[in-house]
Amino acid sequence: MKIMAAGCQRRIYSIYLNRFSQAPKALDIEYNLAEAGFKGDNLVRAGMQYERLAKDKRLVKRSGVFKESAIESYTKALQKADALTLVDRIRARHGLRDVGGEWVKANPRAPGAAAASFNIANSWYEERNLKKAIEA
C-alpha cells in the first residue's frame, strides 16, 4: 500500500471538509489538520483552522482554547515573517489582531493577555502604523 504525501492528504481532507462540513467527523478532521499544520510548520494555515474551530457553534465550550491556539500559531508564524509569503504575512497579522483582540477582551487578566496585546501592537508596528500600534 502506498503512503500519500502530507500535502496530498491535506488537500483531500480540505476537499472533504468543503463538501461535507456538517459530517460527524468533520470537526475531528479540521482539528487534526490544525494540529498537523502547527507541528509541520504550516502555522498560518493552522491558525486559520483553529480560528474556524473557535467560531463553530458546536464547539462553544472549547472556543477559548482554539483561540489561544490560533494566537500561538499566528505569533510563531510572524516570528519567521521573512520566510512567509506576503499573503501569509497579511493573513497572520490580521488573524492575530482579530482573534487576539477578541481573546484579550474576554480574558484581560489571563497570563498570556499581555503577551498577546504586545504581539498585536507589534503587528501594527511592522506595518508602520504607529498610531494603531500605540492604541493596541
Number of helices: 7
Strand and helix order: HHHHHHH
Structural class, from helix and strand content? mainly alpha
Strand content: under 5%
C-alpha end-to-end distance: 53 Å
Radius of gyration: 16 Å
Low-pLDDT sequence parts: none
Helix content: over 70%
Number of strands: 0
Described by strand count, sense and barrel closure, the largest sheet is:
none
Net shape: globular
Quaternary state of the chains: single chain
Task: Summarize model confidence as the mean pLDDT.
Answer: 87
How would you characterize the overall build of this protein?
The structure is a single chain. This protein has 136 residues and is mainly alpha-helical. It is built from 7 helices and no strands. α1 runs antiparallel to α2, α3 packs parallel to α5 and α5 (86-106) packs antiparallel against α6. The protein is globular, with a radius of gyration of 16 Å. The termini are far apart. The model has no long low-confidence stretch (mean pLDDT 87).
